[in-house]
Hints:
alpha+beta; eight-stranded antiparallel beta sheet; single chain; globular; Penicillin V Acylase, Chain A
Amino acid sequence: xxxxxxxxxxxxxxxxxxxxxxxxxxxxxxxxxxxxxxxxxxxxxxxxxxxxxxxxxxxxxxxxxxxxxxxxxxxxxxxxxxxxxxxxxxxxxxxxxxxxxxxxxxxxxxxxxxxxxxxxxxxxxxxxxxxxxxxxxxxxxxxxxxxxxxxxxxxxxxxxxxxxxxxxxxxxxxxxxxxxxxxxxxxxxxxxxxxxxxxxxxxxxxxxxxxxxxxxxxxxxxxxxxxxxxxxxxxxxxxxxxxxxxxxxxxxxxxxxxxxxxxxxxxxxxxxxxxxxxxxxxxxxxxxxxxxxxxxxxxxxxxxxxxxxxxxxxxxxxxxxxxxxxxxxxxxxxxxxxxxxxxxxxxxxxxxxxxxxxxx
Length: 360
């Protein structure tokens, strides 16, 4: 039975991640009251996804999948956490634990690859798609994770799925990106606070230098010669040349400039709302990534959900393609010593509620 579940999960994830329509964009913001916010989008443009959230108590036992079954590393949760999964409940892609540590999975095709799977090492083998759950259930700091990862074999269930990389953030503002290349884990300090997909994080940081001319505001007039003056055609011309397509490099550049030019937020909640406004710019309209005769049915947007976490207040907010109203899970209201392990769909019904305005 467990082997059948693994096969179904692998097939499902292969179908999802093998498509060229996967795009995730992550940003981070801070507020004057000391709050720290991380936020991200999750896109899959191939099919509608059944996404949900799960609640994990302290003391819950996990066992990782391996390419040969549900026979990998066993571990028990030290910290309770809330996570959002896509399609398959054990595969959490975004979440936060009761210590305020946040972790998120981002697709990383063609650039990451793990060490070969060794069945004799199953007792220390961890599936990459379950890495977020492991991090959130075990650690409160990045340094704890870095020390423990040396004793873990990180593997993929199928090389057809493609690799992923991760964003891990502490509530004090420290953030790292973890990428596994040629089987070797690499941690990069992410002081910018932005992450998208392939290529690697260091490449994206270098690529930002191509946009050194961009700045907020309006560019002043430029007199080419007497009688010939170039004038900006509108406000915001300092951002002229900002890439607008949906590729990972372009989204990284846009996220970097939108995030760093955002106004200061007074509170964590203000930063949460600001994060949703910024990430509105990364919603991918359905059909923009497909020929007209191949547009999938039943999807209002390729951005299946957007999530934002206040790591200080321990609140996870989200909205979906089907319901753009912002909803919130307050970890402060959860007793992780007593709550049962549970999961629920992000949307009880996939219908956008509309508030009627009554005119008297």
